[in-house]
Amino acid sequence: MPDVKMINSSHQLTQFSLRESVLMKQVNSILHLMAITACWLAAIPESVQLCLICMILVSAWFHRNYPEPASIELKYTLNREWEVSLDGNHFFRAVILESTWITPVVIFLHLTSVEHGNLTRLVARDSLSADEYRRLKVKLKLSGVRINDR
Predict the structure, then answer these.
(1) What are φ and ψ of residue 24, in 5° steps?
(2) Which of 48, 95, 99, 116 is a Cys-bridge partner for 110, taking CB atoms 3.0 to 4.6 Å apart?
(3) What is the pLDDT along the chain (150 residues), one digit of tens a residue?
(4) Has this prediction a pTM greater than 0.90?
(5) Cα first-last separation, the chain
(6) Alpha helices, DSSP H, located in 4-101
């Protein structure tokens, strides 16, 4: 019988490739539409309404044409440390902050690193497959992040 070594699955390298979230695009569009509606219904002069609506439309255009980088890679290493790549090639060590918040729909991921300082990323449930999202939540919880399922 050959010598087979079993590796504890909790110590394997885990990598997560975050995709662009359709859910976050929809939420962003809805929020811009709500802001336009609020400006339109507000009891303010029409010139101010027009100016505010124009600024909201410019904001919507920028969010649509210049979104945050969608390709973010997260690694949970064998040493139980987190590494992040913003360009898909160069990974840097990061520490998950206690202010990270996990919900069933979105993870508010707060990181800090020497190279990039503090970073905040929203990880929507559709940024990963259902299994990967669940595994990311478990790895974050194992590394000390609290889960808020309210």
Answers:
(1) -70, -35
(2) 99
(3) 333 333 344 445 788 888 888 888 898 899 999 999 999 999 999 999 999 999 999 999 988 887 666 578 888 888 888 898 888 778 889 998 888 889 888 999 898 988 888 988 888 999 899 999 999 998 888 887 766 654
(4) no
(5) 51
(6) 22-41, 46-65
Provide the 8-state DSSP code for 11: G
Q: What totals of helices (H) and strands (E) does the chain contain, helices first?
A: 3, 7
3-state secondary structure of 38: helix
Closest to 93 in 3D by CA, of 71, 110, 68, 76: 76
Contact 138, 9 (CB under 8 A): no
| Inter-residue contact 136 to 123 (CB < 8 Å) | yes
Q: Which tokens in the block code for residue 51?
A: 């100016």
Q: Is the separation of the CB atoms in 32 and 56 below 8 Å?
A: yes
- What distance in Å separates the CA atoms of residue 128 and residue 133, rounded to the nearest whole number? 6
Token pair listed for 131: 């299994």
Alpha helices in 42-143, H assignment, sequence order:
46-65, 130-142
Query: What are the beta bridge partners of residue 83?
Result: 75, 93
